[in-house]
Design a protein that fits this description.
The chain is of the alpha+beta class. It is built from 11 helices and 7 strands. It has 2 domains: about 170 residues, Roll (Nuclear Transport Factor 2, Chain: A); about 110 residues, no CATH class. It starts with a helix and ends with a helix.
Length: about 290
């Protein structure tokens, strides 16, 4: 196994197969970020979402996707020009993954790509002493999605962050207040359809437990863009709390818990989840 990957794996507490798969995905995510940084991706793009919160602010759950937003809107942004940097970085660590762009709806503000590779092949590179049959149910491909919002609303604030592994690199990231605005937008506006995203709720608790304030300008602009509120609405923290409490009354908490369980260690922490719990903690939102 590559010494750098071994060093990165050493920070994980791996108790079962699920832990190993999550660690594999997260290390691949960090290698992708390093490659993007080499290609000067973060001169025009910022990192946000659950994975950003996990990597840079110690969120205690794994996260599947990589989410980005342009610093300045650009409908002609070409994500594919950065694929060469991602592929080169992955290959330098002996990882065989393919990256492909998702066909974009011409009316969408989101451009996407998927990174895919054989799960078993990479598990055995990371954990060479494991037995193949242990992973017989995991032979489907690793799949990591990343998305870039090419026409984001204004109001985000940024920080420059540095990582030393897999090699020293710099990343532009939404600050904590702007990350919270993005998470609240996801809670209110995400099209959950048949699957409730309990991961959004888990992250929301993390923000409030760490006494992080919301970027009110950004959340207002994001809600206007999504047509959740009107352009000329009277909007402040009290209005936002009311919107959240109304949403928390609609959620199926059993489904929400099932969604987040594979990504966290302490599933007992979910026992308290209810509309009453989320409504009461929202009183502390600042």
């Amino acid at each position: 196994m590559n010494n750098i990957i071994e060093q990165m794996l050493s920070k994980y507490e791996l108790k079962n197969t699920n832990d190993e798969i999550n660690a594999l995905k997260e290390i691949i995510q960090e290698i992708v970020l390093s490659g993007l940084s080499r290609g000067n991706f973060f001169n025009e793009v910022a990192f946000y979402g659950g994975t950003a919160l996990r990597i840079f602010y110690k969120l205690d759950r794994f996260s599947e996707d990589l989410d980005f937003a342009l610093i300045f809107p650009n409908k002609k942004f070409d994500l594919s020009k950065y694929f060469i940097y991602i592929e080169k970085e992955l290959k330098s660590y002996g990882l065989n993954l393919e990256i492909s762009a998702k066909q974009k709806n011409k009316n969408s503000n989101i451009t996407s790509a998927f990174l895919k590779g054989n799960t078993l092949e990479h598990i055995l590179k990371f954990f060479p002493n494991e037995k193949n049959n242990k992973y017989s149910s995991l032979l489907k491909n690793i799949k990591i999605k990343f998305e870039v919002d090419i026409n984001p609303p204004s109001g985000a604030e940024y920080e420059e962050k540095y990582k030393l592994l897999p090699s020293p690199h710099q990343i532009k990231i939404y600050d904590k207040e702007s990350l919270l605005a993005g998470k609240i937008h996801a809670i209110l506006c995400r099209g959950w359809k048949t699957r409730v995203k309990g991961r959004d709720l888990y992250d929301y608790v993390f923000f409030l437990a760490n006494d992080i304030k919301v970027n009110i300008e950004l959340i207002k602009n994001k809600l206007i863009e999504s047509k959740y509120i009107e352009q000329n609405s009277n909007f402040d923290i009290n209005k936002l709390k009311k919107l959240l409490i109304y949403k928390f009354n609609e959620i199926d908490y059993k489904e929400a818990k099932e969604d987040v369980k594979p990504f966290i260690k302490d599933i007992d922490s979910l026992n308290i989840w209810s509309k009453e719990f989320f409504s009461r903690i929202t009183e502390n939102l600042k």
